[in-house]
Amino acid sequence: MSETRTAIVTGAARGIGAATARKLAENGLAVAVLDLEESAGAPVVADIEAAGGRALAVGVDVSDEASVDAAVQRVADELGAPTVLVNNAGITRDNLLFKMTVTDWDAVMGVHLRGSFLMSRAAQKYMTEAKWGRIVNLSSTSALGNRGQANYSAAKAGLQGFTKTLAIELGRFGVTVNAIAPGFIETEMTRATAERLGISFEQFADGLAKEIPVGRVGQPADIAETVAFLVGDGAGFISGQVLYVAGGPTD
Ligand code: NAP
């Protein structure tokens, strides 16, 4: 590979997305740090630049078609044609089915499913033109079912079907498409879950760690390392797969 590749990571202002953006930059990719607010991505961009890398913060709502198309165009113009896409942006709106509102159902579907669709559709043209590309979608162990997450678990299971279909359609263009399904990872998202359950994060994480074979909860770096592997040249024969990264088997 002679030219610098450009990656887009959505929801990259914090958590798994921020760790992934930093890792890909460390590996020599130019990285577009996409999040709802451009300003939220600025600290990640500053870190990458301070370490000698190239990065660009771009504000986007992944569930909005015009916003996605404008953001991807801006990345192509200002950073380079994106041939790596990590669909990581995510939200939770947990509730038991009988209390789940249509708004909360639609919001979760909008960010995870519609967002990954819009981002992938906008980015694939650069990948097919380059005859090389990598798409990684963030699924979850919740895809297997999780109390209080009918919306989230349906979206994360949907992403697995989406991943397999894109792998079939885009393979002939040198584009691989895979999903990573993390277990419990320590981020703002899981901190919010602990808060909602009314327990401290430490109590929550310690309890869960006892059930995880490797004896600890996951960190954003665990997922960033997995993304880095899947978007590398060495992973070119892996496509349409769902890799559970959960410190043990999941079913
Ligand atoms: P996080 O800390 O909540 O970060 C998610 C990021 O996505 C936030 O910066 C958020 O921005 C951004 N975002 C939300 N809606 C967006 C939209 N419409 N457009 C653009 N950006 C948007 O989450 P995380 O824990 O790092 O999770 C990252 C991904 O991994 C998610 O897809 C999540 O479902 C998945 N995952 C996480 C875990 C876990 O245990 N943490 C486990 C399995 C899967 P704002 O801050 O402005 O809302």
UniProtKB/TrEMBL annotation:
Domain of life: Bacteria
Ketoreductase domain segment(s): 5-183
GO MF term (any one): 3-oxoacyl-[acyl-carrier-protein] reductase (NADPH) activity
Signal peptide residue numbers: none
One Pfam family hit: adh_short_C2
Localization in the cell: Secreted, Cell wall
Catalytic activity: a (3R)-hydroxyacyl-[ACP] + NADP(+) = a 3-oxoacyl-[ACP] + NADPH + H(+)
Protein keywords: Cell wall, NADP, Oxidoreductase, Secreted
Claim: NADP is one of the keywords in the record: yes
InterPro entries: KR_dom, NAD(P)-bd_dom_sf, Sc_DH/Rdtase_CS, SDR, SDR_fam
Keyword Oxidoreductase: yes
Any single GO BP term: monocarboxylic acid metabolic process
Family indicated by similarity: Belongs to the short-chain dehydrogenases/reductases (SDR) family.
Protein name: 3-oxoacyl-[acyl-carrier-protein] reductase MabA
Species, as recorded: Nocardia bovistercoris
Lineage start: Bacteria, Bacillati, Actinomycetota, Actinomycetes, Mycobacteriales
Gene name linked to the record: fabG
